[in-house]
Design a protein that fits this description.
- There is one protein chain.
- By secondary structure, the chain is an alpha+beta fold.
- The protein is 28% helix and 19% strand.
- The protein is built from 9 helices and 18 strands.
- The strands form 5 sheets. Strands 5, 6, 7, 8, 10, 11, 14, 15 and 18 form a 9-stranded mixed beta sheet that branches. A 3-stranded antiparallel beta sheet has the order 9-12-13, with no helix packed on it.
- Helix 3 packs across helix 6 (347-358), helix 7 packs across helix 8 and helix 8 packs across helix 9 (405-414).
- The longest helix has 21 residues, at 136-156.
């Protein structure tokens, strides 16, 4: 049996028109009749297979919980690709099958054998099982923040909602009955701290909730001062809730384009570093226009900040649904030019695959809420959540420090408490 991959389909399940099939997933005027792969410049044309290998794969993934919303259509599309990556990472980190190697979305002999083993032992995916919800405290926090921001916005940013944008007024926040939430925690502790080379550190936390389960990822909610030459100042995303959709980052770059989250329609509201002090401060002003380029995307391993205002997630490490620190360093590419050489995007691949399988609609019409908050607010409104989240963060930092001596030097100098 051939190795199954993105773009394969069962010959009997061919759609009437591939362009019509792919258009809802692609953006702009893209007329390619191919699937966008994960590696640089990679496009996967639809390739027919005899029999029902893709249908059989999807049925197995669905029975184990990796396709809670996906249909069994015989087409190895973006959701099936995400489900395979999720399965590979689950078996690697939970079942301990290190021999699976890099989660790459390819179904070869090793993955096929692991899938059969999971079927035989009925090892279903806990990451998509909503029967034991762990998100109650986080949803309660969001409700508390909604009431707080309802009072704060008229004072702090009175013009925030004076025009159309994907930044939602508190009364429109999506909290309950939403299968996927992403919460970014902006840490003021290092907001103005720069590494010796001038790059802002990745020191922020992303809490991702999918079907009631919670995982933690790491990166930055703030721009790197060296990544933008705007005369009116680098952009900082306004705190609050914003509506995002599935799409592609660097979509104008035929080589580096990959799947990410983009503002849903009009763009999100940002504050510009108008006083040019390279940090978010009282002298900064709300941008007149909504910004449609503030994506949620990958940041290499996370040892440097690639953001020019986007919300970026590193690939080196994450905390799973049981708060275990999961080391992804060895299969996380540090940069674009290492992709596809036994390395992927590490923790980012897991995060994006997880929200992909848990979202009812992954086309460009499908949306999910992203809520940006400040660490001080988390500490004040939910001190236990704050303590547990940043205790876990310290453990994750140690993982990165273990692998990268340069980062260790910076952390020892600027935040030695993280190594205690």
């Amino acid at each position: 049996m051939p190795t199954l991959r993105l773009g394969h389909f069962d010959k009997s399940r061919k759609p009437d028109d591939w362009l019509s099939y792919l258009r809802p997933y692609h953006e702009g005027k893209c007329k390619r009749k191919s699937f966008r792969g994960d590696c640089n410049g990679q496009w996967r044309p639809p390739t027919a297979l005899d029999g029902t290998p893709v249908t059989d794969l999807q049925q197995s993934l669905k029975s184990l919980g990796y396709l809670p919303y996906g249909s069994v259509d015989g087409i190895f599309g973006y959701r099936t690709h995400a489900a395979v990556i999720l399965f590979q990472e689950y078996m690697r980190s939970v079942a301990g099958l290190a021999e699976l190697g890099t989660p790459d979305g390819l179904v070869g002999p090793k993955t096929r054998g692991a899938l059969q083993e999971a079927m035989n032992s009925n090892l279903s995916c806990r990451w998509t099982d909503s029967s034991e919800r762990g998100d109650g405290a986080w949803l309660q926090l969001l409700n508390s923040l909604r009431e707080k921001y309802r009072q704060d916005y008229p004072v702090l940013l009175p013009d925030l909602f004076d025009r159309d944008s994907d930044t939602l007024p508190p009364e429109s926040w999506q909290i309950d009955q939403v299968p996927v939430h992403i919460i970014g925690i902006r840490r003021k502790a290092w907001a103005a701290s720069l590494a010796p080379d001038g790059k802002r550190m990745n020191n922020d936390v992303f809490v991702v909730i999918a079907n009631g389960n919670v995982m933690h990822f790491f990166g930055s909610t703030d721009p790197n001062p060296r990544m933008s030459d705007r005369a009116d100042g680098i952009p900082f995303l306004c705190k609050g809730q914003h509506l995002y959709r599935f799409g592609f980052h660097k979509r104008s770059n035929k080589v580096k384009c990959y799947r990410a989250l983009r503002p849903a329609s009009h763009g999100v509201r940002v504050v510009r570093d108008s006083d040019n002090d390279k940090k978010l401060s009282a002298g900064d002003l709300l941008d007149e226009k909504a910004n449609d380029t503030i994506n949620i995307h990958w940041s290499g391993r996370g040892t440097s900040n690639w953001s020019a205002g986007c919300q970026v997630i590193g690939g080196a490490v994450y905390l799973d649904h049981t708060d275990r620190t999961i080391d992804c360093w060895n299969h996380a590419a540090p940069s674009y030019n290492r992709l596809g050489k036994g390395k992927g995007r590490g923790a980012y691949d897991l995060m994006f695959s997880w929200i992909t399988v848990c979202s009812p609609d992954i086309t460009t019409a499908g949306t999910l809420p992203y809520t940006l908050i400040e660490e001080d607010e988390l500490n004040k409104l939910a001190p236990r959540l704050h303590q547990s989240t940043f205790s876990a963060f310290r453990e994750a930092v140690k993982t990165v420090v273990f692998h990268d001596p340069e980062i260790k030097k910076i952390v020892k100098k600027r935040a030695p408490e993280l190594l205690a």
